[in-house]
Amino acid sequence: xxxxxxxxxxxxxxxxxxxxxxxxxxxxxxxxxxxxxxxxxxxxxxxxxxxxxxxxxxxxxxxxxxxxxxxxxxxxxxxxxxxxxxxxxxxxxxxxxxxxxxxxxxxxxxxxxxxxxxxxxxxxxxxxxxxxxxxxxxxxxxxxxxxxxxxxxxxxxxxxxxxxxxxxxxxxxxxxxxxxxxxxxxxxxxxxxxxxxxxxxxxxxxxxxxxxxxxxxxxxxxxxxxxxxxxxxxxxxxxxxxxxxxxxxxxxxxxxxxxxxxxxxxxxxxxxxxxxxxxxxxxxxxxxxxxxxxxxxxxxxxxxxxxxxxxxxxxxxxxxxxxxxxxxxxxxxxxxxxxxxxxxxxxxxxxxxxxxxxxxxxxxxxxxxxxxxxxxxxxxxxxxxxxxxxxxxxxxxxxxxxxxxxxxxxxxxxxxxxxxxxxxxxxxxxxxxxxxxxxxxxxxxxxxxxxxxxxx
Length: 456
Known about the structure:
alpha/beta, seven-stranded mixed β-sheet, five-stranded parallel β-sheet, 17 helices
């Protein structure tokens, strides 16, 4: 447990030394320092550069030894051949964690240099993130110690990635998609801190609700299984595992120096330990957004409410393919549904309110489904029409969802008005998607997690 608590210095450091800080915009050492400053990190920042006296308005130190007091976290961005000296210097300053941005270690065959890096760090009581990474973000501490995008949106999804370039790109994508993150962790070569350590720490983090991992391989498979079994019943863990094909596995092995292994083995491990495996970036973040709503499934029985018959059929197909149980509503619930639709509507499941449905009909039908004891989950499908306001429909769903924590996912299909309505729902903790399949997939993932973890 002590080694896990040592990760506090990685996520909540009181001071950070940036070794290799640069005065030149565009250089990694400059961008890391700029992100720390501009994102609003509230601790002490110590740039270290032997040739500079000031960078970005901060006093620059010519060496780590010049820094007054202690350093919690060292961020190292210098050539690999100088990293060991930096580790020694940080150890003298009492650092408890070091994020090694530098490349040139096991990923290019320099395994002995990487092992010596970890040995020296452990001798001095430090944990190592990396090397070969783009950094770490922890939004509750306003800490962005990366050379990725600056304005990461705060939220409750922790994103752990073994790929640097992909991780940086997805940081930017989450900003565009307005997906909030609690943490972004680039693990690179996993010389020391690896998936199991991060799962343990994040499972205890009050600001994280769901953990999403882009993985190419694991180093300690047995430990990973044991940790995952402990963590997944408390917090959902979604893994986007690369290397499904034979050639993909080879590419993963050459990328970060890790052994990707047989895909079937990973598939089995994920099922045994309660991990959900996503097969695309879109799917992984859809599921994470749904879990971040903090609505916990307690069963499989699902009702679809829609104003479009075609959307309902597509959702029904998606539900059957994903194994999601569509409830045959009991007669009393059907009777309630009939009061919110014209005679040619359908109270069956999907519940077709017809294209005439406006805010009162959606609000009433959705509330009836959520409040009924026979229903565990609700999916709402709205197709934009000229006679309805998508934002009004979104507000109707929000009102209907008040007072219940049953899972609910919404599809709003249409133009710009529907996009704005989806943004409103997402900002209020109701996951919203542009297609029936994605809304169904999100609920199906939540139900699958419930199935896998209820007996762990």
